[in-house]
Amino acid sequence: MAQAQASLPETFPRLLLYHAQWRDKHPALREKDLGIWQTWTWSQVADEVRKLAAGLHVQGFRRGDHVAIIGENRPRMYFAMMAAQSLGGVPVPMYQDAIAAEMVYVFHNAEIGYAIVENQEQVDKMLEVREQHPALKHIYYDDPRGLRHYTQEGLLPYEQLVKLGEGLLQVQPKFVDEEIEKGSPDDTAALFYTSGTTGKPKGVVQTHRSLIDRARACTEMEKLTVYEDVLAYLPLAWIGQNIFSYAQALVTGYTVNCPESPSTVTNDLREIGPTYYFAPPRVFEGLLTQVMIRMEDAGRLKQKMFHYFMDVAKRVGADILDGKPVPFGDRLLYRIGDLLVYGPLRNVLGMSRIKVAYTAGEAIGPDLFSFYRSIGINLKQLYGSTETAVFVCIQQNGRVKPDTVGPPIAGVELKIKDNGEILLKSPGLLKEYYKNPEATAEVLDSEGWYHTGDAGFLDADGDLKIIDRANDVGKLADGTLFAPKYIENKLKFFPFIKEAVAFGHGREQATAFINIDFEAVGNWAERRGLPYAGYIDLAGKPEVLDLIAECVEKVNADLATDDKLANSQIHRFLILHKELDPDDDELTRTRKVRRRFVQDKYSVLVDAMYTGKQEQFIETQVKFEDGRTGKISATLKIRDAKVFAPMAKAA
Amino acid sequence: MTSRDRHIGDVVLKVENISLAFGGVKALTDVTFDVREHEVRAIIGPNGAGKSSMLNVINGVYTPQVGRITFRGADGKQLSFDHMSPRRAAEMGIARTFQSLALFKGMSVLDNIMTGRNLRMKSNILLQAVRIGPALAEELEHRAFVEQIIDFLEIQAYRKTPVGRLPYGLQKRVDLGRALAMQPTLLLLDEPMAGMNVEEKEDMCRFILDVNDEFGTTIVLIEHDMGVVMDISDRVVVLDYGKKIGDGTPDEVRSNQAVIDAYLGVEH
């Protein structure tokens, strides 16, 4: 096996040529365009990449240069990454919904002189970036729409870049292949800027070797083949998406499908029926919310059937998936349920063909997780981050526990520091943070251990259990443990609650901010004939406060049974008047709450909750998508929630 | 940021001395203006000023008592009428959208836009009904064109959704899509942004400018949002009580005293 591995290519461009040679007719990429799925085979991709790379070379792009890649999941964005790497350059994928001001820092930090972007929206941002970062000389765009009259210097459509490349290849047909030969596995493959819940983004340097090693480890463990289909619909700038639809696709040779547009993803998911799927918990949450909303609108008989069989699934579904013994009667019931409910449901979710689905990025609520597993979808948790090229721990088939992330996979060495922080060594570790030795030194110690910043422990089976961010785990004033994330996840499992932020460190009691899910609560209000004018209005309705209070109290009841966390019950809460938004820096681009920032920004509200006020006025500045700002204000009601006497769980 | 150096061409539409009355009510009195090729021409004015009547005269829904309309069709031929008929207007390449939407609510977005291709379908109705032979080939061709419009207007996600279930802003977009399906040379938009929120308005503005840019379509639009009008139009006609009181570039109109008095109001 070691020998077979040694013969496999060790850089991404060489992997591309390898697939183009050995499975030239196999679909590499698909994109739905004008309503029809269009296919690119591996050999077509290789040809296109050669031309594009040659074009970039003509434009002065050299070994070690950085190029920004900004756009939705379009085949051309993938070609651009491959082309840059073919020349020994470094692609820097960036979040397409970030505003220009946020991007400038990255452009400066990574000294980016080239950008390959999707459309007019991104070109406009690039021109804005260029005002502060004149080194950005070359901007290439995929979709020319609306750009006909742009006369700025250095602006070139993608097609022209390819034409330039064709010209060079006519003279030197082997040019790009020779460049690919010069590449080394230890070259930087890509820079991923981590959004970071604190401070400026940091550029994580990952080499071809580290990314390929981790991708291969996962492929071998899950026995993935070239026949897998994945749907690429999350930002390429997120390493999660990048490793699944780029690194692992090139390593394994499977097919990546690009949706028609971000709004058609649910449909495209159904049409493609991916076999391998990856999404952060919020996507699974969103899908479940949609199902629940539609179920509530369904007829009585259907509702009854759904709830009956969901109870069956809850009881035995996960065990059946894990291959554990289950009584014959239940097995039979589950079979019937599969025919009537689970099968159709999987189909609606676009998950009929799933071989393995992963969730990562954040802890997933145990109930949410169990839901998917109980209807027969092999959803598993994994643990990893940008700095570790994703794969550190993966739950093993047949032994999945909802509250752990599984054992460390091949190549990973793991230990727990005294304060609970997880340290690890892995071939997938970052080389460094780009031009930031201090930050690098903070996470990589002299012995090569990477400090994750997560608190956790290994359980009796050797599975890793994550509690929270090491920095976030706190203590209530009486000294008992306070894990905000844990409480928030419990709250977020309710379809009505989109986001929650819990406070309590150093306080007598825990409290929480709640963001309602506009769609779910809106639907609920409509069915009750409750009129509302918009988000703020809906969020402030006393009926909605009652609804959320019920959810909070259920969480409290649940917490009361946990001997460690019984004191963390939420005593007071309020519903925020606006959705927490990455544009306002309240969430990261990957939609994690920036706890400290939220706490500071809304300190009036936090204080109001702890001083016993019944309501509090607040005015907030908001940023619109185009970068303009505005103000919204509201008077928020603060509610007390029922708390329960702690009771140890009956054993 | 864009240099909109489009090649505004010759006059394609000229309305001369139009007067229209319903019984004793004078909707339009002696209105004259022209529209040049590839331009965005706005008609503004207070409520009841006769803006919609003017559009209805142009595409032949109303017949003016006095006046002439000269239109240069897609074939370049100059034709003069004292009244237009809606069918002839459509055949000559004039399409329009409506202030109060006139879509088929129960039909899908796709089918609604397909109806815009109706005039261009050549095979007979029987063949179309059974979808065989030339009718099928023709339908595929039209479908491909409609798909381009769907892509252009970014409504892929709603292709199969009945129009009645879409929010208002999207319905407006479908309405525009149906008008575009006719491949018009002149597009009449009756308050394309009425009742929209800021974001929807911005989207709509972009679509209108893109239509104008990409397809070179000449656009006449009625709009109340002055910010929008001044931003996207090349020339503006101002009507008040059925009479023209101003005509020129947005800047000229903005500083025209008669217009300020009648409509824009005094700046504080």
Number of domains of chain B: 2
| Name of the CATH architecture of the largest domain in chain A | 3-Layer(aba) Sandwich
Helix fraction bin of chain A: 40-55%
What is the name of the CATH superfamily of the largest domain in chain A? ANL, N-terminal domain
- CATH class of the largest domain in chain A equals Alpha Beta
Using DSSP, what is the number of strands of chain A?
27
Structure explained in plain terms:
- The complex is a heterodimer of chains A (651) and B (268).
- Chain A is α/β, with parallel strands linked by helices.
- Chain A is built from 22 helices and 27 strands.
- Chain A has three domains: 2-276, ANL, N-terminal domain (Rossmann fold); 279-469, Rossmann fold (3-Layer(aba) Sandwich), CATH 3.40.50.12780; 474-640, ANL, C-terminal domain (GMP Synthetase, Chain A, domain 3, 2-Layer Sandwich).
- In chain A, strand 1 and strand 2 (36-41) form a beta hairpin.
- The longest helix of chain A has 23 residues, at 300-322.
- Chain B is of the alpha/beta class and 268 residues long.
- Chain B has two domains: 1-93 and 184-268, Rossmann fold (3-Layer(aba) Sandwich); 104-182, no CATH class.
- Helices cover 37% and strands 25% of the residues of chain B.
- Chain B contains ten helices and ten strands.
- Chain B has a six-stranded mixed sheet, sandwiched between helices.
- The radius of gyration of chain B is 19 Å and the shape is globular.
- Chain A binds chain B through residues 33-36, 124, 127, 145-146, 148-151, 260-261, 263-264, 267, 624-626, and chain B through 1-6, 144, 147-148, 150-152, 154, 156-157, 159, 199, 202, 206, 209-210, 213-214.
Give the arrangement of secondary structure elements.
The complex is a heterodimer of chains A (651) and B (268).
Chain A: H1 2-7, H2 12-22, E1 27-33, E2 36-41, H3 42-58, E3 66-70, H4 75-86, E4 90-94, H5 100-109, E5 114-117, H6 120-132, E6 138-141, E7 155-157, H7 158-171, H8 175-182, E8 188-194, E9 202-207, H9 208-222, E10 229-231, H10 239-252, E11 255-258, H11 265-272, E12 276-279, H12 281-297, H13 300-322, H14 328-349, E13 356-359, H15 366-374, E14 379-383, E15 393-394, E16 413-416, E17 421-425, E18 432-433, H16 437-443, E19 450-458, E20 464-469, E21 474-475, E22 481-482, H17 484-492, E23 497-503, E24 510-516, H18 518-527, H19 535-540, H20 542-560, E25 570-575, H21 595-601, H22 603-610, E26 615-623, E27 629-640
Parallel strand pairs in A: 1-11, 3-4, 3-5, 5-6, 6-7, 10-11, 12-13, 13-14, 24-25
Antiparallel strand pairs in A: 1-2, 8-9, 9-18, 14-15, 16-17, 17-19, 19-20, 21-22, 23-24, 25-27, 26-27
Helix pairs in contact in A: 2-3, 2-4, 3-4, 3-7, 5-6, 9-10, 13-14, 13-15
Chain B: E1 11-22, E2 25-36, E3 40-44, H1 51-58, E4 66-72, E5 78-81, H2 86-91, E6 94-97, H3 109-115, H4 125-130, H5 133-152, H6 168-181, E7 186-190, H7 198-214, E8 218-222, H8 226-232, E9 235-240, E10 243-248, H9 250-254, H10 257-264
Parallel strand pairs in B: 3-8, 3-9, 6-7, 7-8
Antiparallel strand pairs in B: 1-2, 1-4, 4-5, 9-10
Helix pairs in contact in B: 3-6
